[in-house]
Predict the structure.
Amino acid sequence: MTTMTSLFAAAEAEVPTLCRDLIRIDTQNWGDNTANPERPAAELIAAWLAEVGLESTILESAPGRANLVARIPGRDPSLPALVVHGHTDVVPADASEWTVDPFAGEFRDGLLWGRGAVDMKNMNAMIVAVVRTLLRDGLVPRRDLIIAFFADEEAGGVYGARWMVQHHPHLFADASEAVSEVGGYSVDIRGQRVYLVQTAEKGMAWLRLIARGTAGHGSQLNPDNPVTRLAAAVARIGAHEWPQELPEATRDLLRGVSDLTGVPFSAETYPQLLAELGSVAKFVGATLSNTSNPTLLSAGYKHNVIPSTAEAVVDCRTLPGEHENLMATIRELAGDGIEVRPEIASDAVESPFSGRLVDTMSASLLAEDPGARILPYTLSGGTDNKSLAALGIAGYGFAPLRLTGDLDFPAMFHGVDERVPVSALKFGTRVLGRFLIEA
């Protein structure tokens, strides 16, 4: 008798190699269309899919900035399609800081090391491995699957998902839901393994602050120095304490932690409940309020010249419904003489932790890890689900990984020595396979 697990034995066997080969393609993205092109990664994925008879379409938003889309027909064509998507770009990596070459895709001690091992070439490889098995073995999913790999997610998706939604929305017109990264991974809470499904994301507002003043000699008195004005604005914004207001998914997660630990659920015990999540508190703790973190400063060109302008970039993340309030507060904190210019902005997104899709996620996880618990959570960062939300597509984070407690998983995102357990890749491939057949 063939079991569901054995159906994906081939996918489980090849996923580490697929992930390694994707890591070895350097797709670093510095933003502002400065990137090592994603096209080689898209072409490799297209070749892997072509081997099993699945045709892909590659669309470029700019030279080399490639987005790939393919479609697998389902058993019931009357059902809305499900988008299963990943991004092929990665944040930059300074090789001098790493134990290994970040683009070598090296296996060590049961882990695969390299930039993208977690964010998110691991999920890309799991998607490809499962799709190859579906096509190779004639396994037909319940509904159509739209398989997409986007460029430029690490810089807001301007050349990736945003561009695809703006210029090729027909490719996603009949889709109702989407799944992608940063969800479905496990955390240990007092010996109980809990999988966190991402059902919400904070909004994003990347803001440029521009101070203008009077240029002059650095030795002279200058009451109109834009550097001074900007520095004061940045200090006020960075020090601002935003009031707490929990999104529904964060509230449900902390209530679940309370049920598991016996720590009462109240505003006074939020720090205790967060502590029970271990390193995952890095993700969750930032979802209790808006945030505004200055990240870049730029001014001047010589030590004895006061410049006429100074600029800063502030990375703001907003709770649902809080975008306008945040913008008004930032402008007030910045003060007179500071222009606040939005560079990229997108609203927070929330999807229900209920319905067939969530039930199928839970069933797929429990089939491979009986006795586990599944809880929702809000992501403090963002994914390409924000772009798809503009088309009315509900987004979820579901890149299932069974992790060991000795790995600081949140630190792997954009961190040094990024790595993922090979066993987690194989586990995730089995879970994802079950899920995509019945979702």
Notes: Residues 121-137 form the longest helix (17 residues).
